[in-house]
Amino acid sequence: MNSHRPTSEQEAVIAAFRVGSTLVVEAGAGCGKSTTLKMAARTRPSAKGIYVAYNRALVDEAKRSFPSSTWCKTAHGLAFGPVGKRFAHRLSGPRKPAREVARILKITEPVKVSDTMPLVAPQQLARLVTAAVDRFCKSADPEPDRWHVARINGVQDSEMRVIRDVVVPLAREAWADLCSTTGELPYTHNCYLKLYQLSDPQLRCDYLLLDEAQDANPVMASIFEQQTDVQRVMVGDASQAINGWNGAVDAMSKFAADARLTLSQSFRFGPAIADEANKWLEILDAPLRLRGFEQIGSTIGPLAAPAAILCRTNAETVSQVMAAAKAGRRAALVGGGADIRRLAEAAIDLKNGRGTDHPELFMFSSWLEVQDYAEHDTSGSDLRVFVRLIDSHGADVVIDTVDRLVDESRADVVVSTAHKAKGREWPTVRVADDFREPKATEDDPEPEIVREDAMLAYVTVTRGQEYLDRGGLAWVDRWVRSGVRPAFDASKSTIGELIDASSLGTPEATAHREAGRQALSADLTGMLEEQADWDATGVDGAARAVELPAPHCHRCGSGDNCACDPQKAAEFTQRTGKPAGPAAQREAFLRNLAEGRDVVESLARALVGIDA
Question: What domain of life is recorded for the organism (predicted)?
Answer without folding.
Answer: Bacteria
